[in-house]
Fold this sequence. Notes:
The protein has six helices and 20 strands. With 353 residues, it is an alpha+beta fold. The strands form three sheets. The protein has a ten-stranded mixed β-sheet, covered by helices on one side. An eight-stranded mixed β-sheet has the order 2-3-4-1-5-8-7-6, covered by helices on one side. A two-stranded antiparallel sheet has the order 12-18. A hairpin with a 7-residue loop joins strand 6 and strand 7 (107-112).
Amino acid sequence: MTPPLARHPHPTVKAQSLAWLMFERPDLDRTERFLTDFGLRVAARTDEALFLRGTEPSPFCYVAVQGRRPRFAGFGLRVGSVEDLTKLAALPGASGIEPSPWPGGGERVRLTDPSGFAVHAVHGAADAEALPHRAPMPLNVAGAHPRINGTQRPPVAPPEVLRLGHVVLEVVDFQATFHWYLQHFGFIPSDVQVLPDGSPAVAFLRLDLGDRPADHHTLALAQGVVPTYSHSAYEVVDADAVGMGHRVLKDRGWRHAWGVGRHILGSQIFDYWHDPYGDKHEHYTDGDLFTAEVPTGVHPTSRDAMAQWGEPMPRSFSRPALTPLTLLHILRNVRRGPDLSLGKLLTLARLFG
Ligand SMILES: [Fe+2]
């Protein structure tokens, strides 16, 4: 492992979980239709905001706020104590500790990461009741046949989302953003994919929960040409839920992005769908769980390095929509950003374009 990828020895705090994602949306009704077809449930709705949740007790894991243009605004991270909030409130640009106005309450500190994404650190939010979901399907597999005189008939319905699993961001200032999350929230790089020159292209970051297992990644950062949301991922009950989600979303006319397949880094069985604004949302099951002891892995990146089976990653998957404004931003970022040279832009285009 090269030293620049190492975990931070004394982070400001160690985040405990991913609390929620924040979006701005012009049409909350259409947003609600997609997300409920996707398997989330409405937790609360006002004229200005739509809150959604999974079956796990978190009072919400997704908020869409009424806004003129569609935008991913940022995300919330739960921290372990009020002392953690105090430490974060002392960072440059942070808000003070303030009450969270959203379901569950608690207190929060608002920060902005070096790429401009909002990060809300939250503590003390109350849990809601867990909601029921179907049991995992009993599988007849090699050496174990639990289902005798029985059949498999999962309901033809949106798959029940259990919880928000991870969010992936594309950033221009990769190094600064990567180190900010390691230094201030204690993220551990589980695996890093590198370009032929050794510079990181994608970093999969997990929470440091010590001996308690954490998802292989809760946050991932990819070298991009403009700072933007890549996708977010939601855990469902089992592989049949992923497959049934595919059928239901297709039947209801939503646009597919990629899947079904099994990832390599993180191992999830996955399926990606576009929401009404083209933002990708992933169903997954059977992801890897690591304790803090597993060291960082380093691997070459390419489109082929993204899945073990299933359709290859489509070329459209990681390519930004090339509007004149985006092109202008890309050119400016290549000239300004320390991590994005013209050479790297061409390498990314060759590997993923
Ligand atoms: Fe993902």
